[in-house]
Design goal:
heterodimer; A: 284 residues; alpha/beta; Rossmann fold; 20% strand; B: 309 residues; mainly alpha; MetI-like fold; 3 domains; 13 helices; 81% helix; flat; nucleotide-binding (chain A); transport (chain A)
Amino acid sequence: MTADVQVSAEPAVRLSEVSKAFGTGRSALLALDRVSLDVAPGEFVCLVGASGCGKSTLLNLVAGLDRPSGGTIQQHAAGKDGKDGQGSRVALMFQEPALFPWLTVTGNLELALKMRGVPRAERRERAGALLDTVHLRAFAKKRPHQLSGGMRQRIALARALALTEQEHASGTVDAQEEAAARSTVLLMDEPFGALDAMTRDLLHDEIERIWRERRLTVLFVTHNVREAVRLGDRVVLLSSRPGRVVEEFPVPLERPRRIDAPEVAALAGTITDRLREEVGRHGA
Amino acid sequence: MAHDTTTRDKRRDDAPDRTGGAAAETAAGRLDREIAGLDALELGGGTRVRLLQRTWSALWPILTAVLIAIAAWQAVVWSGWKEPWVLPGPRDTFPVFWDQITSSRFWNSVALTMQRAVIGFVFAVVVGLVIGALVSQFRVLRRAFGSLITGLQTMPSIAWFPLAILLFKLSESAILFVVILGAAPSIANGLIAGVDYTPPILLRAGKVMGLRGIGLYRHLIMPASLPSFVAGLKQGWAFAWRSLMAGELLVVIGDTTSLGVLLSQARELNNTADMISYMLVILIIGIVIDRLFGLADASIRRRWGVAEN
């Protein structure tokens, strides 16, 4: 499955020697130390690391919520004519659904579409289509608190997908739009961390399906090594304080994978050993 | 019911050769069904209590409390602590109360008092909104005026009256001035607290969506601060009502009759039953309006799922 990733194409995201320090002078804390990483269009990359590896900081930087102290982040954000600026095709999803409680499910999605410049007339329909994608059409008029944690997280996913959408989506996806869709990056910050195991398993299948259908580029942060191997084309291991890329592990396993498959467990074991080695350095 | 369905699905997965249909089922279809099953399980079934039952369970503690209060009042009268003409019992007071609330003079007084209350409160809301918006927006103003606003909130409004009378003489303006000063700090504080406690995670989500400037206020900060703002309104109303009563007792304008004027006239005539009747009316109006704010507050909280229960 990894063979069809277009490694030859320009990367959807390229991080070159990215550093991030918080504070100044002697008390400054270096969160990220010269992290370089390319994510190919359509690739599913998982970042794993122990606490303090700057995973969330990294996603904030890519999402444009924060500026790096050093290095550059390039995004191949191909709009229709390349006009769209950097960061305009990024969607970020958190561990919490972070839905607006005063809006209905549809209202939440429509607001995201509005912010993407989708005309009012199209919003209702497009929101409905997104709800179909996450199988929650029947709950369009509910408010977030009326849904379960897993359902809320799927709405949050639908909202993130809304942010990756084109202004004028039509039923048919032509080549140009497809190229643009491939360069939209979905950033996920431990999105399933707060869910129970059963729900998480189902959502793994769900996110894999949506990733494939929509040809998304995904940068997925998790502390769960098995989850990373279950989902990723590639697993990138980060060290802690400061965050550095320790090693990258390609995942040459056939999809769909099961999280309890022996091959997944074996690779996860290798990565976990390497991770423990890293964590051990801090105890010495 | 839903639970049965999922268990059955699981069994079908384990033994795909049991029926031909299950074996032919696509992986995608199965995933859809499993997710739908889990959704059904997680939502569960809520129980709805009937309206009548809900009303009664809200009402009976209040009725009991009223009965206990009346009983205590009667007990004090029976103890012979004061002469009956100084402290009449409920049996002497309620007929007077009834006479009062069926007289037009009384309703004219209530109308004047309520008019003052509403005008004062509306002004207080405007002043509170402007101050709250400015202070929550600019950090310098916050540092300069934040504690001053809280200080004003705790200041007894009656202390403003000497100044108000000097500034405005015995006029409507004097009363209005004190009502606004009493209510505006609470309203401003409610707004400031609401803006301050907009959940950071929602702010992050808003930024990812590209909300900034006016849009950020319109779509995120204003709705997020609404519950706290309504709580501020409720408290502001309580302060406005107290200030107004103090004002009507102190600032008597010409031959106007308001609840405060009726109250002080009853005292001058040693007419305790009338006086208690007016006090009851003042209490009831305060409670009713407070309940209205409470209902608005509760309905927002319920809709947003932030109710305590």
